[in-house]
Every structure is written in structure tokens, then in C-alpha cells.
Amino acid sequence: MDFLPNMRLTTQRQIILEELGKVTSHPTANEVYDMVRKRLPRIGLGTVYRNLELLAENGIILKLEVGGTQKRFDATIESHYHIRCSVCGRVDDVDIEVQEEINETAAKSCDYKILGHHIEFSGICNECSAKETVLH
Ligand SMILES: [Zn+2]
Ligand SMILES: [Zn+2]
Hints:
Blueprint: H1 4-22, H2 29-37, H3 45-57, E1 62-64, E2 72-74, E3 81-85, E4 91-94, H4 101-109, E5 120-123, H5 126-135
Parallel strand pairs: 3-5
Antiparallel strand pairs: 1-2, 3-4
Helix pairs in contact: 1-2, 1-3, 2-3
The protein binds zinc ion (ZN) (2 copies).
């Protein structure tokens, strides 16, 4: 039997996990690919993408359900909130307590069993604010 393909996949997945865990920038699949490629020069974007999807499906990482056109990934899976820059699209964590009571409020106003909620704040990041100041 040939265990090699599985072994390789496991190693690749491990490195993808490690690289994602190093950053708090909520990278896109492309950005994860750029990070992983430094350690695995022969890895393909498709492989990185498939592994990210698989890790997200298994609840090992978080696939961000935020606005914007590209999916972003997060090694932090505990419930937390995000803020997205309306100018450059960067996503950061917002370090506030998760508002559990929103679930109860929602449960009272609809027929769903509430499993959770996502909050995405929008704003303008420091860097973009600084650029705007320069322009004006
Ligand atoms: Zn910005
Ligand atoms: Zn996050």
C-alpha cells in the first residue's frame, strides 16, 4: 500500500495550519498560499485552497463569513467579532465580549433555533486613515 499521498497531505495541512496560526490578519487563500510556499515551494494554490476548505469544514479553522469578495481564514475558532476596513478590506479582531443575549432576542423574534451570530463591524483602519490625512 502507498501511504505517501496521505502523508504528504497531512504534512501540507499541518504547515498550512502553522502558517495561519502565526498571523492575525485573516488572510485570503492566496495570502496563505504565499506564506506556505516559502516552506513548500512546490505546493499549488488549489491544494492550499482545498486544505483550507477541509480544515474549515472540520471546525479546525474558521472561514470568515464577512463582506468582500474573497474568503478569509482565521486560526481562532472561538466566537469573536471582526472589523473590516471599508477602504482596503483588511480584517481584524474586535476584542469585546460576545453578546450572547442577542441570540435570545433573535430567538424571540423568529421561529428559528438560534445557533449563533456573526458581527462584522466596518470602519477605516489606521493605515487608511493616515493616507487620507496625507491626501487632504
Ligand atoms: Zn484600510
Ligand atoms: Zn478573527
